[in-house]
Amino acid sequence: MTASPQVQPQSPAKPAKPPRHQDPRNPHKRLRALLDEDSMEPISADDDSGMLAAVGTIDGAHVVAFCSDATVMGGAMGEVGCRVVVQAYERALADDAPIVGLWHSGGARLAEGVLSLDAVGRIFHAMTTTSGKVPQISVVLGPAAGGAAYGPALTDVVILGPEGRIFVTGPDVVRSVTGEDVDMLRLGGPEPHGRRSGVVHMLAESEADAIGRAREVAGLLGAQGEMDASGIADVDLGEALPDSPRRAYDVHPLVEQILDADTMLELHPRWAPNIVTALGRFGGRTVGVIANNPLRLGGCLDSLSAEKASRFVRMCDAFGVPLLVVVDVPGYLPGVGQEWDGVVRRGAKLLHAFSEAVVPRVTLVTRKAYGGAYIAMNARCLGATRVFAWPGAVVAVMGATAAIRILHRRKLAEVAPEIRPQVEAELAVEHEVIAGGVDKAVEIGVVDEVVQPSATRSALAAAIAHAFTGLADTRGHHGNIPL
Amino acid sequence: MAGEIVAEMVANVWKVVASPGDEVAAGDMIVILESMKMEIPVLAEQSGTLAELRVSEGDVVQEGDVLAVLA
């Protein structure tokens, strides 16, 4: 990592800076907006360190927060400012409270030389040793360059405001080193980080929206609540699916219907959209949902979606959030691009993440689960708490027609071409019964129970509630490395 | 920026649903691709007029190929 570029040069053409108490970048204002009214109590000195830390509440729950002071040297971080952040982390650990960072900083203070790099590195160390113990949420409200980029990147959830820009080296350095002409927006704005890099989990429409989302995430991870299974009403979830089993569909309405109304908060909605990862409430309790989305790439797993899901599974597991896994997956996406992209290495992360997870994790196969992707979507063999399937679901190595073309290659080669489709169809029906049908899956124990779509919500709730009975607090049993 | 609608994966064009000149809204179906033995609708991300339709039924498209352009 290089020292930070000067992302906020004081241009002589700009109007004079407003007095600090009126400056919208004033960290007092920003922290007050984050915390419940009148709950903010500073825990660091109000000086020119470039950082301010405070404790307060979010919806009544205790949190620790810190904020770059962009009114001083563009929020650049020196030894003293970094110590403020490290002390905020110590406080969060001591209080067992979520910690929220509001970022607007050009990175390490050049004038302090390597001392500032050392100090920024201590923040990274504090974040890493805290990882998985208390939820860490970052909101990037302005430029976050160099060290200020890696800070948020080490945390659990990163929210980007419309003026937020995240990059290791700014446009000036890029231009001088590579000659590439690029502005901050294209280099590290909402579009690249929302869709391409996966650096941010959520884009916000305004600074207030960004702060509102941070409050929501802090509530979901920090105040998870108790599940009230009796409060879960059944609805016919099957209506969210198309009639034809071959037709792809958007899985979002199904996930929304499974969760309590209006509680779905999706992470990484535009990056690797073939898998949906969302936090929400289920019977009032926080849960995490992982769902294949057939509308995108047919719902295939690929290297990016496997990595996205793995990180989400590990985050939920670290914080004791139970998982609902909604499966409709045709397989891993085939191709040279995927193999060279490391679909084997990245896909292995998902196998690892589910296998090590100790939170209740319940699987629902709605239509199909094929091949290696079947295993990766929290199958029985990886230690799923319970596996449900809807009537008619297919659990198999591959689709029946593809399978019989391999299994009966010689026989099919011998039949006349004009009757081959008919023979294939007959063999496929036969194969489905012996190898892929849901009854077979129940018989061999890879599916625990066939459940009607109209009874699914209560079945999922009962399975989670039962798994929680007697389960010790498992929070913090591993960190949440940003996979 | 003109709205290019691209194929996300290798696929056959199974059905062309919209026609050039059509007014489409975000979420409207433009074509249906077939891949991984599934029919995968390709939807408009924004509203506009369908200025170009670059594929026909039966075509094989590669990842990144432009299927249609919205103006």
Topology:
The complex is a heterodimer of chains A (about 475) and B (about 70).
Chain A: H1 27-34, E1 41-42, E2 51-58, E3 61-68, H2 79-95, E4 99-105, H3 114-130, E5 136-145, H4 147-153, E6 157-160, E7 165-167, H5 171-178, H6 184-188, H7 190-197, E8 202-203, H8 207-222, H9 252-258, E9 265-267, E10 275-282, E11 285-292, H10 303-318, E12 323-329, H11 336-340, H12 343-356, E13 361-370, H13 371-376, E14 386-389, E15 394-396, H14 400-407, H15 409-414, H16 420-436, H17 438-443, E16 449-450, H18 456-468
Parallel strand pairs in A: 3-4, 4-5, 5-6, 5-7, 6-8, 11-12, 12-13, 13-14, 13-15, 14-16
Antiparallel strand pairs in A: 1-2, 2-3, 9-10, 10-11
Chain B: E1 3-6, E2 11-16, E3 23-24, E4 29-35, E5 38-43, E6 48-53, E7 60-61, E8 66-70
Antiparallel strand pairs in B: 1-8, 2-4, 2-7, 3-6, 4-5, 6-8
Q: What does this protein look like?
A:
The complex is a heterodimer of chains A (483) and B (71). Chain A is elongated. In chain A, strands 1, 2, 3, 4, 5, 6, 7 and 8 form an 8-stranded mixed sheet that branches. In chain A, strands 9, 10, 11, 12, 13, 14, 15 and 16 form an 8-stranded mixed sheet that branches. Chain A has helices at residues 27-34, 79-95, 114-130, 147-153, 171-178, 184-188, 190-197, 207-222, 252-258, 303-318, 336-340, 343-356, 371-376, 400-407, 409-414, 420-436, 438-443, 456-468; strands spanning 41-42, 51-58, 61-68, 99-105, 136-145, 157-160, 165-167, 202-203, 265-267, 275-282, 285-292, 323-329, 361-370, 386-389, 394-396, 449-450. Chain A is built from 18 helices and 16 strands. With 483 residues, chain A is α/β, with parallel strands linked by helices. The mean pLDDT of chain A is 93. In chain A, strand 2 (51-58) and strand 3 (61-68) form a beta hairpin. The mean pLDDT of chain B is 92. In chain B, the strands form 2 sheets. Chain B has a 4-stranded antiparallel sheet with strand order 1-8-6-3, with no helix packed on it. Chain B has no helices and 8 strands. Chain B has one domain: Beta Barrel (OB fold (Dihydrolipoamide Acetyltransferase, E2P)), CATH 2.40.50. Chain B has 71 residues and is mainly β. In chain B, strand 4 and strand 5 form a beta hairpin. The chains are: A alpha/beta (483), B mainly beta (71). The interface between A and B is medium-sized, with 19 and 12 residues.
